[in-house]
Every structure is written in C-alpha cells, then in structure tokens.
Request: fold
Amino acid sequence: MAFIKGGMFRMGANDGTPHEAPVHPVTVKAFWMDKREVTVAEFARFVRATGYKTEAEKFGWSGMFDVRARGWAKADGANWQHPDGPLSQARPDEPVTQVSWNDAVAYAKWAGKRLPTEAEWEYAARGGLAGKTYAWGDAKRPRGRPVANWWQGDFPQKNTGEDGYVGRAPAGRFPPNGYGLYDMSANVWEWCADWYDASYYAKSPRANPRGPANGQERVLRSGSWLCADNFCTNYRVAGRSHATPDSGLNNLGFRCARDA
Reply:
C-alpha cells in the first residue's frame, strides 16, 4: 500500500458529463491505498482461506463484454476465475473481475482493509497534480504513446492494441502516478464505498465526504479497457460511473484502502 497524506483538492470536472459537476473543494484525511488493483492471485488466496463464493458463482452467470460479438451478453458460467465465459481462464497477475461490490467488501474485511471513498479515490488518482485531466497530466499520449490501458480504435469495431493490450492488462504494467499508484486510469473499473447520486457533488460536505446515506447503485471509478475516444472517456481522473451492488462484469474490479 502507499501512504496518501491528507489534503485539499478540487474534485470533479465542469467540462465532462453532468454528474461530474460541479467542481468543488474537498478535504480528505490521510489514508493508505493499495498500489495496484486486487489481482486474481490475491483473490484466490482469500477464497482458499474462507471458502467464499462470489455472487456471480451463486447466480451461475455474469455480465460480459464479448469482443467477437462486439457487445454485452449474459454469460452463463462467467465468474472471477473465468471472466470472459466458462472457456476462459483468468491470469493470476491480472486484476480480479466479475466481483460484485458485496464480494469486494467481503475481501476487504478479510484483508483488514476497506473500500476507498469516492473522494479518497479521486484524490489518490490525481497523484498530487492539481486540475489535470488524467492521472499523469493533460496530454492523452505523453511522448506520443498511451500510458494506460484503454480501447484505442473505433469502439466496438476495432481495438488496435496500441497500448499493448486488447483486453485486461496485468496489474501494475503501466507507470505509476505521483503517489506510486498504478492503473488509476483505465484497465478495469474499481468499486468505491459510496452510494451513487448523480447530483451529490452539489450538496457534498467539504470534509471527508462519504456519499449519500442510501441509494440503489454504488460508485465506480477509473474507466476500463473498454473506454474509447468515440464511446466514453472515463479514464479521466474525474470520470465516474455506477452499478448495482450485486453486479459483476469482466471490466470491473477493485482496490482497497485503510485508515491511517
């Protein structure tokens, strides 16, 4: 984990999607954040130690983006070990996916950690940079090359693999941000602790916001390997999304945090 010294930053974006606005000042306390997304190997240790069954395993299916079919599908047999369907096999070093918010919370509790709040996540993703678009600055391709795993090309027709990957990349394969955190932009979406509310930023407390008191969906951050210039640009540090707590997808994982 990396120690993230607390401080104030300006959260959100006024030039993105409506639920990223308004930009507002937020102060967070110091905390620890996993340097990388939780990997398949790490999640496997949790399962071996506890006998835990994920919600996708209990349901017998999960959501999957099928690259060949160029769309989302209900995939029978998809789970954290087989994220792209029953014939696929997750690599030990890639981020674990097909885990619900409830699954992520269970892992974090076992590990003596918790999920980060949305405010902590964005503060950490910015890596000490103020007002920048990406975790590394404002240039999408520093020195002419991608420095994160998003979809290069025309989504969903063609992924050129310019960044070296046409699916999930191993955790920590791209350069870290200023706080030593990897993959804070793209690769896989990451669960946050907060309930989701599209208008929350307009009423968010300034000190250590923890999201609405209730809701139907939880916040997602980071964007993923499916984010493309012609489809979505949620690999920006202000990008956000949401899903029901029982959702599992092959582009959705998590990392943990811990109080300082």
